[in-house]
């Protein structure tokens, strides 16, 4: 049942603190990481966005090169893989055909495959060499929410383990991860402003999302949610790319959702200038910013606050307002939030 919520999606958004806490306790599989020279992540849709974020974390924490590939494209580039490659297949359902075919290709090339999966005993974990389960519980809504956050947590654990295998310790990150469930609980108690904003944005012709570094996949995820639920034109961009083309999309009143790094981050100033650039072209800037960051106030039409966490973990916070926004905009437009048109929960065809 929906447990008192209007939609499964809202219920699943609300379950995220517990899902993250449970996934933090997930049993790490018996898998030797000492010989890993390269990591390749394969996934689709939202799981691919989790993989993109994982790529930043793995390279930063373990200093191992990491490629992130759309599972549906993977085989066609004839990827270079061998026994020193760790392939990570991320899938909520464990049944996504594109991911499964990519996994089989990787195994045939001699790579070892680690699945990150939410569904016990499904095909992808069964065909992998090892599995790290996410503990999101059943996800009913077609739009993935708690699966995404738990995939991130599992990916972070892999990144930390890979780092540890190479002698790096990231005790600060481990401590910060432990604080995430409570921070998410706090974040989820103040969603009223997002609901009001959703009402405003429901009539927009298009909504753009910008971010940099891990904020870029978050922007892609925000746009994907809005496309699939609200059937609106939505695009995510790496903010630095704006001037190379997409800024031409902006006219008077275009909503631009901006993912701002923390004030101490080397990219903070750059994203602030990107926000000023779009605003100068008439954009309505909606900024997702860390609590206490006042620098953005003069350039933001709306500010959505998220709790303080290390840069690489920030997607655990910044994604949540986007999920709520997409859900509420879709509801305001009168759509079936849990069963959007043309989509299935699990895509079992190539
Ligand atoms: O079950 P999977 O994680 O393999 O599914 C992958 C995608 O089909 C899925 O994330 C899809 O993009 C969601 N509907 C997005 O909300």
Descriptive overview:
- Residues 20-168, 197-340 form the SIS domain.
- It is an enzyme of class 2 (transferase).
- With 350 residues, the chain is α/β, with parallel strands linked by helices.
- The protein is built from 12 helices and 10 strands.
- The protein has helices at residues 8-14, 16-24, 45-62, 71-74, 97-108, 123-127, 146-165, 171-189, 192-201, 215-230, 268-280, 315-332; strands at residues 38-43, 66-70, 85-91, 112-117, 130-133, 206-211, 233-238, 255-259, 284-290, 302-306.
- The strands form 2 sheets. Strands 2-1-3-4-5 form a 5-stranded parallel beta sheet, with helices on both faces. A 5-stranded parallel beta sheet has the order 7-6-8-9-10.
- Helix 6 links the parallel strand 4 and strand 5 (130-133).
- Helix 2 (16-24) packs antiparallel against helix 8 (171-189), helix 3 packs antiparallel against helix 10 and helix 9 crosses helix 12.
- The longest helix is centred in the middle third of the chain and has 20 residues, at 146-165.
- The two termini are 31 Å apart.
């Amino acid at each position: 049942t929906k447990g008192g919520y209007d939609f499964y999606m809202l219920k699943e958004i609300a379950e995220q603190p517990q899902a993250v806490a449970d996934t933090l306790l997930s049993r790490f599989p018996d898998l030797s990481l000492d010989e890993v020279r390269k990591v390749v992540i394969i996934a689709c849709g939202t799981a691919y966005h989790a993989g993109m974020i994982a790529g930043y974390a793995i390279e930063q924490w373990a200093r191992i090169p990491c490629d992130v590939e759309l599972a549906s494209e993977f085989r066609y580039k004839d990827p270079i893989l061998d026994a020193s490659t760790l392939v990570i297949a991320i899938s909520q359902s464990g049944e996504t055909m594109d991911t499964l075919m990519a996994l089989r290709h990787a195994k045939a090339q001699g790579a070892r495959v680690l699945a990150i999966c939410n569904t016990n005993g499904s095909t992808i974990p069964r065909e992998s060499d090892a599995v790290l389960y996410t503990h999101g519980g059943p996800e009913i809504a077609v739009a993935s929410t708690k699966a995404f956050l738990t995939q991130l947590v599992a990916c972070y654990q892999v990144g930390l383990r890979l780092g540890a295998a190479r002698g790096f310790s990231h005790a600060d990150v481990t401590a910060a991860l432990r604080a995430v469930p409570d921070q998410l609980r706090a974040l989820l108690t103040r969603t009223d402003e997002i609901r009001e904003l959703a009402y405003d944005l429901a009539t927009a012709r298009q909504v753009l999302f910008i971010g940099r570094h891990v904020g870029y996949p978050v922007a892609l995820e925000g746009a994907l949610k809005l496309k699939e639920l609200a059937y609106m034109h939505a695009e995510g961009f790496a903010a630095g790319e704006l001037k190379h083309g997409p800024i031409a999309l902006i006219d008077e009143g275009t909503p631009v959702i901006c993912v701002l790094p923390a004030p101490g981050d080397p990219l903070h100033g750059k994203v602030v200038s990107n926000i000023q650039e779009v605003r100068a072209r008439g954009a309505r800037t909606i900024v997702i910013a860390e609590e206490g960051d006042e620098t953005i106030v003069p350039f933001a039409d709306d500010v959505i606050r998220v709790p303080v966490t290390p840069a690489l973990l920030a997607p655990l916070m910044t994604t949540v307002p986007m999920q709520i926004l997409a859900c509420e905009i879709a509801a305001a437009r009168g759509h079936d939030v849990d069963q959007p048109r043309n989509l299935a929960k699990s895509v079992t065809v190539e």
